[in-house]
Design brief:
Layout lengths: L9 H27 L4 H34 L9 E3 L1 H21 L4 H26 L3 H7 L2 H26 L1 H16 L8 H15 L7 H9 L10 H6 L8 H24 L6 H18 L5 E3 L3 H7 L4 H16 L2 H7 L6 H17 L6 H26 L14 H6 L4 H8 L2 H16 L3 H16 L6 E3 L4 E3 L7 H24 L1
Antiparallel strand pairs: 1-2, 3-4
Helix pairs in contact: 1-3, 1-8, 1-13, 1-14, 1-16, 2-12, 2-14, 3-4, 3-11, 4-11, 4-12, 6-7, 6-11, 6-16, 6-17, 6-20, 7-8, 7-16, 9-15, 11-12, 13-16, 17-19, 17-20, 20-21, 21-22
Length: about 525
């Protein structure tokens, strides 16, 4: 019987894809903490990144060990470990919806910059801790949810996120830098879709070509002052337990539950979908232990000083298609963890531009989107297409708000508000609808896709139940209900806040029930 190995040649491609994804997230953490939140390098490189590094080592190591043990038990050598890293959605949510408001409020109350930064960081810690607790609890509730949801509902939601937040985002960046982006994309498409073998792994060829072209075209250049700043940050920094700071921040838990709970549930459901995606690709993993690893990784991050949850990534089928098995996971943990502990990411970000390897991540987005159609019954294809739309709408809302902020809106002098909506509607841009679909987009996508699956299967009572659940969730603001902040649109929780959407879903349920009566008479 074949036996698993800790390393195979395909693991190099998988490592480049997963490592690049983690690199992007860590560069985002650095940029947002330094630029948006104004955190000092001592906090970013001395506390946050080392804690992140430990959480990546813990999670990737655990998933690699899990895959090896299951493969040995089954007598297989083709099992691919679950990919794992920083949760992108929670990263943005906690920065803009928790940490930045806390800092601005503290400054507005007359506190100094250092005190405001400390309060903001502690709020991020408690948000991360809350998310980890929800992820851990979700490990005991996810399996019944998984059995109830149709496969089309799970996979289509992933496909929408993959197409919007991953594939489209990087495709825009590819065409913004076409010399580098298109050349690298060509290498990836040939390497993974054409019957051609490169002399080196396709991912490595793409990254090397991208680095050379980026430097040759001037996309990347060496700024001596920035280089000196980044090299000065190199050095071993070991994380310390931050239980005292978490205890001090306990009072900030309740005010931010409106962000923490949806993000925690988002992570639970997203991990569940990724486990479903892995099973479709041929690797079934136990739900409870897989999600416990995820929750423990996030709790480790929070207890050591990181504000950013970790999660099981979308992309297992893409990594498996590359030939990655187990080695790509533990290598990613070691490399990313070591770079965080040693303060190397400032230098790495200067030497290796994201454009050099972004086509690998784009390819993973394509694999996920294609799988949603390939792994579901053909007659469920309309449900898959419908389930993809909320994710695309959420990404569009993110782009719209970023454009508005770039144009001068979202400031103290020109805050976001209802006045934005009418001019956009006159231009046939229905921003209110995009903002509504953005809130609770994963749950909304699953419910919409489930409704259509049940309708296709003539299970109208089940479709009505889905609409009823959506109505209840909308009424309390778990999905769709939103409100303006000065520079964003955020979830709006409360009694009756989502009344219009609740009434709409209620009307859908009544239509389904009426149609069920007609179906009975016809039969």
């Amino acid at each position: 019987m074949p036996q698993p190995r800790w390393w195979t040649p395909g693991d190099l491609d998988g490592f480049l894809g997963l490592g690049l994804n983690n690199l992007i997230q860590i560069l985002l953490v650095m940029g947002l903490c330094r630029g948006v939140l104004g955190y000092p390098d001592s906090l970013v490189f001395g506390t946050i990144l080392p804690a992140l590094g430990v959480s990546l080592v813990v999670g990737n190591g655990a998933y690699a060990r899990q895959a090896f043990a299951l493969a040995r038990q089954e007598g297989r050598d083709d099992r691919t470990a679950l990919p794992y890293g920083i949760n992108t959605v929670s990263l943005f949510a906690f920065v803009f919806l928790v940490m930045l408001p806390v800092k601005l409020t503290a400054l507005g109350q007359g506190l100094g910059e250092a005190e405001a930064v400390t309060l903001s960081w502690q709020a991020g810690l408690i948000a991360c801790l809350g998310s980890g607790l929800i992820e851990t609890a979700g490990a005991f509730m996810a399996e019944p949810l998984r059995r109830w949801l149709p496969r089309a509902a799970l996979l289509s939601t992933l496909a929408g996120i993959a197409l919007g937040y991953i594939a489209l985002g990087f495709l825009l960046r590819t065409y913004a830098q076409p010399v580098v982006g298109l050349a690298v994309l060509a290498v990836i498409l040939v390497g993974y879709y054409a019957p051609v073998r490169w002399p080196l792994p396709a991912g490595l060829v793409a990254v090397l070509l991208g680095v050379v072209l980026a430097w040759a075209t001037g996309l990347t250049s060496l700024d001596p002052e920035q280089w000196q700043t980044n090299t000065a940050l190199i050095g071993l920094r070991l994380p310390q337990l931050r239980l005292g700071q978490l205890w001090q921040a306990r009072g900030q838990l309740l005010p931010w539950l409106g962000v923490i709970v949806p993000m925690g549930l988002f992570n639970v459901i997203g991990s569940l979908q990724n486990l479903e995606s892995a099973e479709v690709a041929g690797d079934r993993y136990p739900v409870r232990s897989s999600m416990l690893i995820n929750g423990i990784g996030t709790l480790a991050a929070a207890s050591l000083g990181s504000c950013f949850p970790t999660t099981i990534y979308i992309g297992h089928p893409g990594c498996k298609a590359m030939g990655a098995r187990i080695g790509y996971s533990w290598l990613n943990g070691l490399v990313m963890g070591a770079a965080c502990l040693l303060g190397l990411f400032g230098v790495i970000g200067q030497l290796v531009p994201i454009e050099a390897g972004m086509a690998i991540v784009l390819y993973i987005g394509l694999v996920i989107a294609a799988q949603a159609f390939q792994a579901t019954p053909r007659r469920h294809a309309p449900a898959v297409a419908l389930g993809m739309l909320p994710g695309l709408a959420g990404w569009g809302a993110l782009m719209l708000k970023a454009g508005l902020r770039a144009g001068g809106s979202g400031t103290a002098a020109n805050p976001f508000g209802p006045a934005l909506l009418q001019p956009l509607a006159q231009a046939d841009v229905w921003a209110a609808g995009a903002f509504a679909l953005e809130q609770g987009q994963i749950v909304a996508a699953m419910l919409l896709a489930s409704m259509l699956v049940y309708l296709i299967e003539a299970r109208l009572l089940a479709a009505a139940a889905c609409a009823g659940i959506a109505a209840v969730l909308a009424w309390f603001g778990v999905i769709h209900a939103w409100q303006f902040t000065s520079a964003d649109t955020v979830v709006h929780l409360g009694w009756g806040v989502g009344g219009p959407w609740a009434l709409g879903y209620g009307a859908m349920a009544l239509v389904f029930l009426a149609a069920r009566g007609s179906l009975r008479r016809q039969s």
